[in-house]
Amino acid sequence: MKHSGRCPKCAAERILHIESSRPEEPRMLVRRAPTVGILGGDGHVLEAVGRVEAFVCAECGYLEEYIVRPKSIPWDDVIGASWVEPPKREEPYR
Q1: Do the Cβ atoms of 65 and 54 come closer than 8 Å?
Q2: Beta strands in the chain (DSSP E)
Q3: Which letter, b or e, does each residue of 37-61 get, where b requires 16 or more Cβ atoms within 10 Å of its Cβ?
Q4: 3-state DSSP helix/strand/coil % of the chain, to nearest 5
Q5: Percent of the chain with pLDDT over 90
Q6: Coil, helix or strand for 78?
Q7: From the CB of residue 31, how many other CB atoms can be counted at a distance below 10 Å?
Q8: Of 6, 92, 3, 4, which is closest to residue 57 (Cα–Cα)?
């Protein structure tokens, strides 16, 4: 929908772009960033590393979400995320 302007589920062309559901608090990916505490101890802060945008079909409700500027995200540091293991390839039957 982001590039075609058409819903892949129902082919409708009424697509709504949502930059953020709450402009004062956009959906963000976060990571823990190391910091030094007030008394000199080690600590961490949550740091925003990526903004989420969405596209919604007004006819069927299909929703697509994308990360803005994905190449700038430190993916291994994102909190609450894990890599999906690719399916194991089976050898062809001979």
Answers
A1: yes
A2: 15-18, 28-36, 42-57, 63-67
A3: eeeeeeeeeebebbebbbbbbeeee
A4: 5, 35, 55
A5: 26
A6: strand
A7: 20
A8: 6
Query: Tell me: the pLDDT tens digits for 43-63?
Result: 777 777 778 888 999 999 999
Contact, 54 vs 92, CB < 8 A? no
3-class DSSP assignment, residue 72 = helix
Cα 32 to Cα 45: distance, rounded to the nearest angstrom = 6
Count of beta carbons in the 10 Å neighbourhood of residue 22: 7
How would residue 94 be classed by pLDDT, with cut points 50, 70 and 90?
low
- Locate 39 and state its tokens: 């008394």
Q: So where are the chain's domains?
A: 15-74
Name the DSSP class of 16.
E
CB neighbours of residue 29 within 10 Å = 21
